[in-house]
Design goal:
It is a single chain. It contains eight helices and 24 strands. It is an alpha+beta fold and about 425 residues long. It folds into three domains: about 80 residues, 434 Repressor (Amino-terminal Domain) (Orthogonal Bundle); about 80 residues, Immunoglobulins (Immunoglobulin-like, Sandwich); about 200 residues, Jelly Rolls (Sandwich), CATH 2.60.120.200. The strands form five sheets. Strands 11, 12, 14, 19, 20, 21, 23 and 24 form an eight-stranded antiparallel sheet that branches. Strands 10-9-13-22-15-16 form a six-stranded antiparallel sheet. Strands 2-8-7-4-5 form a five-stranded mixed sheet, with no helix packed on it. It is globular and about 65 Å long. It starts with 5 loop residues before the first helix and ends with a strand.
Length: about 425
């Protein structure tokens, strides 16, 4: 007899894939699984591991995930819990049964077999009793038992400047009953360290600036969070020679500013012993305080372009407006590649696979004047002084804390300006004069 949950797990995976409207799951790459993990975390508050998601999405998966994992998958689909999902997806067609039942066969048992069977039953009953007694002392696998008032989680240098930067976490999970504990720097599953309930300190190195919400995790459940602010003194370039590079190379703005632009050249990369390949990515960051300007009410404009050094099939560049709680994300890409992008404002994500994002397809090797204004929960995106997209949203990303402008290969920023919603008060401006 197979696992009775397999039918429902497959139904759940199909429903999630339909909702995401991505490519076939058999074609998913690691970044797709990580994106799903982030979406699950944002919506349900449950941080699933990369290995868990990959295992569940295997075509031949026949196991039973932790109850907390099943609950998160059900809540992602807007069901109250896993039981509610199962009730809504119970098989109804005659040929849609969980387990085919073969015709019963007549069995003949010997006295020895009966005696053995009785022994097995008695042993099983004893095991159940012992298990019940033991279960009173410990939670079931995957279950977390704790009182939030008895859990502590903080970082000693919650506001720090410069990258890379080491943050010292203090925690106390001595009263939490769970199988395993982790501290995760932010949403990224790769930035997770296992910790012991017998200890109370962990040092963790942050590789990217920004406002990070670190998470204290028991099994797959977030039980506490704390904020970590990693600021920059000035603009800084983070360079990855390949997309898979874990640790970037840091180049300060002074080395990347020339002719009034913030721009790294092939010569700059060579000077820093960074190979220029088809997978090279350059991200310019500036993270600081902006008088508490809300991500719900602002105007931003910048002039950017990619460099045509590499012969890329789908060159792109993207603006991220970083907030305390989340971020806005606006990409520009070569015209033939719009199906590969997504636009994010607040909690709303528009995928190129299921939405017409053709307005974001441009010749990215030419200067593009990109403007984003947000007011009254409506984002207006203007490109070269022409309104190209409007997105209403509800979720506040919090106070603006910085910007990231990402390029495939290398690229340049002419200027960036952050203003009040109607543009009458300039909060910050960078012209990159040498």
């Amino acid at each position: 007899m197979g696992n009775p949950e397999t039918y429902y797990i497959n139904q759940c995976k199909s429903a999630i894939e339909k909702q995401l409207a991505w490519s076939e799951s058999s074609q998913w790459k690691q970044r797709d699984y990580l994106n799903l993990i982030e979406l699950l975390n944002e919506k349900t508050g449950t941080a699933l591991s990369l290995s868990t998601i990959r295992r569940i999405w295997k075509p031949d998966f026949g196991g039973t995930p932790h109850p907390a994992t099943l609950e998160a998958l059900a809540r992602f689909l807007d069901y109250d819990n896993w039981l509610a999902f199962k009730k809504a997806h119970a098989p109804t067609a005659a040929n849609e049964t969980l387990h085919p039942n073969p015709a019963p066969r007549k069995r003949i048992y010997s006295s020895l077999a009966i005696t053995s069977l009785l022994s097995i039953v008695l042993l099983a009953a004893l095991a159940l009793v012992l298990g019940w007694i033991n279960a009173k002392e410990r939670p079931a696998t995957g279950q977390v038992q704790y009182d939030p008032t008895e859990v502590s989680f903080s970082c000693n240098n919650a506001v720090t400047v410069g990258v890379p930067n080491t943050v010292i976490f203090s925690y106390d999970v001595s009263e939490v009953k769970a199988d395993s504990f982790f501290i995760q720097q932010s949403w990224n599953q790769f930035r997770r360290d296992r910790v012991s309930p017998a200890n109370n300190t962990l040092t963790s190195t942050y590789l990217e600036p920004g406002f990070h919400r670190a998470k204290l995790i028991a099994n797959d459940s977030i039980i506490q969070e704390t904020n970590v602010r990693v600021y920059t003194d000035d603009w800084v370039a983070l360079v990855q020679a390949q997309e898979t590079d874990e640790i970037p190379i840091y180049i300060p703005a002074q080395q990347a500013t020339q002719s009034g632009n913030l721009q790294l050249t092939a010569g700059d990369l060579s000077q820093n012993k960074i190979p220029l390949t088809a997978g090279t990515m350059v991200a310019y960051y500036y993270v600081n305080e902006f008088d508490g300007l809300s991500g719900q009410a602002f105007a931003l404009e910048t002039r950017i372009r990619c460099d045509s050094i590499l012969n890329l099939s789908c060159p792109y560049m993207a603006l991220s407006i970083l907030g305390e709680n989340d971020m806005h994300f606006i990409p520009l890409v070569a015209k033939g590649c719009i199906g590969n992008i997504s636009v994010k404002l607040g909690e709303v994500i528009k995928y190129g696979k299921t939405n017409d994002l053709s307005a974001f397809g441009r010749n990215v090797y030419e200067w593009q004047l990109l403007k984003v204004s947000v007011q009254d929960q409506l984002a207006r995106i203007t490109l070269n002084d022409r309104l190209i997209y409007e997105i209403p949203f509800q979720q506040d990303i919090g106070a603006i804390v910085g910007f990231r402008i990402l390029f495939s290969g290398t690229g340049a920023i002419d200027y960036l300006q952050l203003s009040s919603p109607v543009g009458d008060e300039v909060i910050y401006r960078a012209d990159f004069d040498a």
